[in-house]
From TrEMBL:
Gene3D superfamilies: Aspartate Aminotransferase, domain 1, Type I PLP-dependent aspartate aminotransferase-like (Major domain). InterPro entries: Aminotransferase_I/II_large, Kynurenine-oxoglutarate_AT, PyrdxlP-dep_Trfase, PyrdxlP-dep_Trfase_major, PyrdxlP-dep_Trfase_small. The keyword Transferase applies. Keywords: Aminotransferase, Pyridoxal phosphate, Transferase. Its cofactor is pyridoxal 5'-phosphate. It comes from the Bacteria. This is Pyridoxal phosphate-dependent aminotransferase. It holds the Pfam family Aminotran_1_2. NCBIfam families: PRK07777.1. It comes from Streptomyces lycii. The keyword Transferase applies. Residues 26-365 form the Aminotransferase class I/classII large domain.
Length: 383
């Protein structure tokens, strides 16, 4: 393994999902739903396969129907107008979109500000691109996480090229507010920074609202927005993601993408085009279902003795294990399957400042209610 990647071993998700399988535990570690997305969308994928739509290389930027549907979705929910031909790119999931954006936009040595804790592929993507990560830590207080805007401003240097945002935020469940986003936008304009924003949980907001940072004045031309069908339609295995942004930025990301995967998932692209045109009631039902599951797991974890950070969005909940008498999330998560048959993820893996994340553990609640209840019962037996 070369020096750029040496610090990144096996992802925590692979390690913890393997542990869940080998111990027969309930897997609340890796974030994937245990029920698949809509039947009609699965049927749409089967139809595309049968009709021979997408079985051979689709067009590099993505199939036209999907690009039109992505543009339509940005317009419908956020009033953002994008040209499907020059301002939309289909990727192999949001993961490839993030990596391709970093590879396309960074020069070696450029600094990238990211809100810590952050999704694990960001650090690896920045490293692959030869960039330098500059974490700005979200601070836990009063049951939620807070962004210190002064700290963010102070993190900008002459070498800063871009801010990598994620809202709703994995793993903390934080949804950046209009005021916070306005301040970030102002900073980006003032210091002439690009923003790459990962909004894969855009439809999973329970408190507050999701506002794309691209909506703020001066931001459309400096923002690369990223989302994915994995979370919104519960098809994490399909790996259909996308990028929207100004033509020069999307062209740049496409340049990197075409040498990473060139194209992907032809038939699934056709199915996701249909998914993005589902009525509002689909998106509302998804959110309300997950809101109920959030409440169920938050209550279960609270009764089990964890201190819980109630997430405003995403399908993850972060807990503090200190009230249970533990302080090392890694040791806790490695022992948990044997002790009570539940798998979770130590939040420290999402930190550069590992000590900041030490006593925190993340649980996923995108699971059937019966599974969440059983997991809660098992965790209660811990205490
Ligand atoms: N970004 C965030 C914040 C995520 O939590 C995930 C994982 N589910 C991804 C990106 C990856 O998305 P995809 O599976 O579409 O590559
Ligand atoms: N995004 C999901 C999570 O945070 C899983 C992603 C993965 O397995 N790489 O759990």
């Amino acid at each position: 393994l070369n020096r750029r990647l040496a610090e990144f071993g096996t992802t925590i998700f692979a390690e913890m999902s393997a542990l869940a399988l080998s111990t027969g535990s309930i897997n609340l570690g890796q974030g994937f739903p245990d029920t698949d997305g809509p039947e009609e969308i699965r049927e749409a994928a089967v139809r595309a396969l049968r009709d021979g739509r997408g079985n051979q290389y689709p067009p590099g930027p993505g199939v036209p129907e999907l690009r039109a549907a992505i543009a339509g979705h940005q317009q419908r929910y956020y009033g953002l107008g994008y040209d499907p031909d020059s301002e939309v790119l289909v990727t192999a999931g949001a993961t490839e979109a993030v990596a391709a954006a970093l590879l396309a936009l960074l020069e070696p040595g450029d600094e990238v500000i990211a809100l810590e804790p952050y999704y694990d592929s960001y650090a690896a993507g920045i490293a692959l691109a030869g960039g330098v990560r500059v974490p700005v830590t979200l601070r836990p207080a009063d049951g939620s996480y807070h962004l210190d805007l002064d700290e963010l401003r102070a993190a900008v240097t002459p070498r800063t090229r871009l801010i990598l945002l994620n809202t709703p935020h994995n793993p903390t469940g934080t949804v950046l507010t209009r005021e916070e986003l306005a301040a970030i936008a102002e900073l980006a304009c003032e210091r002439d920074l690009l923003v790459v924003t990962d909004e894969v949980y855009e439809h999973l907001v329970f408190d507050g609202e999701h506002i794309p940072v691209a909506c703020f004045p001066g931001m459309r031309e400096r923002t690369v927005s990223i989302s994915s069908a994995g979370k919104t339609f519960s098809f994490t295995g399909w790996k259909v993601g996308w990028v929207t942004g100004a033509p020069e930025l999307v062209t740049a990301v496409r340049s990197a993408k075409q040498y990473l995967t060139y194209v992907s998932a032809g038939p699934f692209q056709h199915a996701v085009a249909e998914a993005l045109r589902l009525p509002d009631s689909y998106f509302t039902a998804l959110r309300e279902d997950l809101r109920g599951k959030r409440d169920l797991l938050v209550d279960g974890l609270t009764e089990a003795g964890f201190a819980v950070y109630r997430p405003a969005g995403t399908y993850f909940v972060t807990t503090d294990i200190r009230p249970l008498g533990f302080d090392d999330g890694f040791a806790f998560c490695r022992a948990l399957p044997e002790r009570c048959g539940v798998v979770a993820v130590p939040t420290a893996v999402f930190y550069d400042h590992r000590e900041q994340g030490a006593p925190f553990v993340r649980f996923a609640f995108c699971k059937r209610r019966s599974v969440l209840s059983e997991a809660s019962a098992r965790l209660k037996a811990l205490g």
